[in-house]
Amino acid sequence: xxxxxxxxxxxxxxxxxxxxxxxxxxxxxxxxxxxxxxxxxxxxxxxxxxxxxxxxxxxxxxxxxxxxxxxxxxxxxxxxxxxxxxxxxxxxxxxxxxxxxxxxxxxxxxxxxxxxxxxxxxxxxxxxxxxxxxxxxxxxxxxxxxxxxxxxxxxxxxxxxxxxxxxxxxxxxxxxxxxxxxxxxxxxxxxxxxxxxxxxxxxxxxxxxxxxxxxxxxxxxxxxxxxxxxxxxxxxxxxxxxxxxxxxxxxxxxxxxxxxxxxxxxxxxxxxxxxxxxxxxxxxxxxxxxxxxxxxxxxxxxxxxxxxxxxxxxxxxxxxxxxxxxxxxxxxxxxxxxxxxxxxxxxxxxxx
Amino acid sequence: xxxxxxxxxxxxxxxxxxxxxxxxxxxxxxxxxxxxxxxxxxxxxxxxxxxxxxxxxxxxxxxxxxxxxxxxxxxxxxxxxxxxxxxxxxxxxxxxxxxxxxxxxxxxxxxxxxxxxxxxxxxxxxxxxxxxxxxxxxxxxxxxxxxxxxxxxxxxxxxxxxxxxxxxxxxxxxxxxxxxxxxxxxxxxxxxxxxxxxxxxxxxxxxxxxxxxxxxxxxxxxxxxxxxxxxxxxxxxxxxxxxxxxxxxxxxxxxxxxxxxxxxxxxxxxxxxxxxxxxxxxxxxxxxxxxxxxxxxxxxxxxxxxxxxxxxxxxxxxxxxxxxxxxxxxxxxxxxxxxxxxxxxxxxxxxxxxxxxxxxxxxxxxxxxxxxxxxxxxxxxxxx
Lengths: 352, 384
Fold this sequence. Notes:
The structure holds two protein chains of two kinds.
Chain A: H1 4-22, H2 26-53, H3 58-62, H4 78-86, H5 88-122, H6 129-147, H7 152-168, H8 180-189, H9 195-208, H10 215-239, H11 244-251, H12 256-285, H13 288-293, H14 301-307, E1 309-310, E2 313-314, H15 316-336, H16 338-343, H17 345-350
Antiparallel strand pairs in A: 1-2
Helix pairs in contact in A: 4-5, 4-15, 5-10, 5-12, 6-7, 8-10, 10-12, 11-12, 14-15
Chain B: H1 3-8, H2 25-55, E1 57-62, E2 65-70, H3 74-80, H4 85-88, E3 90-91, H5 97-120, H6 125-150, E4 155-156, H7 158-184, H8 191-203, H9 206-216, H10 225-232, H11 243-271, H12 275-283, H13 288-299, H14 301-315, H15 320-325, H16 337-346, H17 350-383
Helix pairs in contact in B: 2-17, 3-17, 5-6, 7-11, 7-14, 8-11, 9-11, 11-14, 12-13, 14-17, 16-17
């Protein structure tokens, strides 16, 4: 520890040298700060406005703009009281729904996505296109059988049987095989699909099996919707972890799973954390799918926010409180994990 | 297929020679990817196939379940020429002289670059010619539609409105994100603070952001009221009644929310440009602007294109902002395709809704393929 001051001085000298080589003159430094501070204000002002609105009475909001609590209006906790006490049960239910749906779907998405990305970055896949077609074709057949009135266990049985039969017979003859890049591209490109095209059939499906308005329906749908993003981010990340480490482990006699647990996972933590954060934010804030698949019991926070725009017009004060309540955990996490985001996933996504 | 390139084919699978690296590899291999593949097939491909069937039929809820009648291309006909064409396509106006100029310029440049592409790779000339013609025809049609509906006597439908949101929004977000990334990657004190703060808008729920901007853009009760009354007189002006005012409000809110996404990735990209290259340029006497233009920009071009691709794909699905901020109005001035599809779903016209979704899918795919085929190749050629 006694050498610390020297080290510090050396890094400081290094920083100055770097500044003189690449850095800025005094005038441009001021300019850059002006830009950064301006954008900070742009980012923070709407949030400031929400925060002050949450402390206003309806009269303060409707009589024209007032800016400073305690100066040009008297702050009141009425809206907070409404959200936490009067309608406390409703707020709690929506918050718990958001939390459960967001966290569970993000955990599943990252786990499934990480396994797939790891596999795609380390091993070779050569599936026959005809087998994939057989799987989808027999599945479509099963769906139509369900529509025609067949009970679903029978339909699943038909699906498996037709699929197995096809793979054993006609699908063998076609030799065209897919590569890792094809699979990755196909998985990632699912993000192009408009959510409403996916949600309509799922809406009918969940309605038929009585899962509408449950957390489970939302979790399942979010996993499907966010998996492409997780794979896109994590594939880059795993591909950037040197393969030599696993080779060394293999020579030492480790199994694939031992190598995965002891070597790859510790290295992958930043990427996994950052991806988790991204996926969580998507699921946490999602509105369209939630509005189709849930109404009361599984209502999430974004739906509750929108429901404050009722027949009497938007209840700005209540809405502000709800937006703050639902945003604080995510903002706190984003700021707390900013280091991970910068270092882990995004550096991974950027390196060549 | 060229798309994997853009999303990422920077690294070919390195696994060629290590199939026997670990024992019992085959079962592990299947175990790793099959959950993802099965989930995507069940949750994306099947719904997509069923949606396709819906798009060609009329769907009705009846007392005990539902009833589907196959109606062929009826839903699409309605969108393009029938009762929904005003909302979907818009009102077609005349093309002004500069519109013809732009169209001729577009076709001309496509033909010019097409001829050069065929010359440079004569072996693939049929493929190039076919793909170029498709892009030229579809691109010209879209461009003509934009010109015809956006100027004078036309009225844009949801196709053009969505395109305006995507083009203007993504361009703005990229430019701002890049500028901020350049600023925040300078050796400055407190840059971690700025980076953390700049992330915040992305974490706010889009509907929340939409209501925020509805408050802020309110000309009577919003915080900018003094500004509005100074410029437009007290209470005389409401941007909600003005189509372009409403569209600009949406683009501003979208930019506020999604610039951070561009920003964080571009910061990482800008910082990964090797210092040695910048110093070499500096030694050669390059000014700051030239360093940026000839070193940094080409180096970050591939990342930029991936970013533009991802953001455009997401932007085509824009719905929360117009729904909350303007309700798609005034009239249908801010009704995006996704919002149109949801409104149809609300009216229980599932077939029409699916048809709009499919139109979206085709449009997004077309846009993405153009970005990839024309942009990505050029970006890669620029640095190599």
